[in-house]
Amino acid sequence: MYYDIIKLFNLEQFNIKIKTAEITKIDNVLYCYMTLERNTFSCPYCGGTEISIKDYRKKKIKHSISTNNPCYIIYNARRYKCNYCNSTFYEANPFSSYKQKTSTYTFYTTLRQLLNHTNTFTGVAQNLNLSVTTVIKIFDTYVECRRAILPKIICFDEFYRSRKTLKNMFLLWLIFKKMGLIHFNV
After folding, report:
1. What is the mean pLDDT of residues 86-106?
2. HEC states along 82-103?
3. Do residues 34 and 93 lie in contact, with contact meaning Cβ atoms separated by under 8 Å?
4. How many CB atoms lie within 10 A of CB 67?
5. In terms of DSSP H, where are the helices of 91-168?
6. Bridge partners of 20?
7. pLDDT, tens digit (0-9, with 9 covering 90-100), for 111-156
8. pTM score of the predicted model
9. 130-157 exposure pattern, b = at least 16 Cβ within 10 A, e = fewer
10. Which among 16-25, 50-59, 148-157, 167-176 has the top mean pLDDT?
11. 74 in Cβ contact with 60 (< 8 Å)
């Protein structure tokens, strides 16, 4: 069952690092409670090797694996204390980036769904149980769109098509020197 939980949450790459994993469902929201294995490392401030566990803090990370229900990873993050310099620091979080409350898998899934040009920000947000602003922030952070270079002279022409059609006005954009079509709005 432990492996099934890891596979359900699409966390196979962290299988070695995860110590405990439990799933609960409260009010149609999936929660996965996880604790990682303890690793040996040195203090990031002074380089000391005598480190003790100070306490545990629960971090709530949005992990959109399900399109039906919102899903969260409740991660028991260890806070360590260096015995040399008395500084405290967290263990490395494999589920999300520094100070992020959304998992990297959710970022990847969001960007993969936005590859389809017919998907909208609102549609992806509803599909992944995210807010529209979160989807827009993810898109703006990771995607750089180049703007098209406009020519020096552009011709606009608006014309009337017919009374019988639903959309009877058209807008035509042309490049003046090359007489090429830029855009045609119906």
Report:
1. 86
2. ECCCCCEEECCCCCCCCCCCEC
3. no
4. 10
5. 104-114, 121-127, 132-142
6. 35
7. 999 999 899 999 999 999 899 999 999 999 998 888 777 777 777 7
8. 0.67
9. beeebbeebeeeeeeeeeeeeeeeeeee
10. 50-59
11. yes
Q: What tokens does 64 get?
A: 């959109």
In a 3-state reduction of DSSP, which class is residue 146? coil
d(CA 28, CA 54): 34
Torsion of CA 104, 107, 109, 110, to 10 degrees: 170
Give me 42's structure tokens: 């040195």
Q: Say how far residue 4 (Cα) sits from the centre of its chain.
A: 23
User: Which range has the top average pLDDT, 34-38, 56-60, 141-145, 162-166?
Assistant: 56-60
Say how far apart CA 167 and CA 107 lie, in whole Å: 39
Distances (CA, A) of 100 to 3, 26, 60, 138: 26, 23, 10, 11
Structure tokens at 61: 């990370």
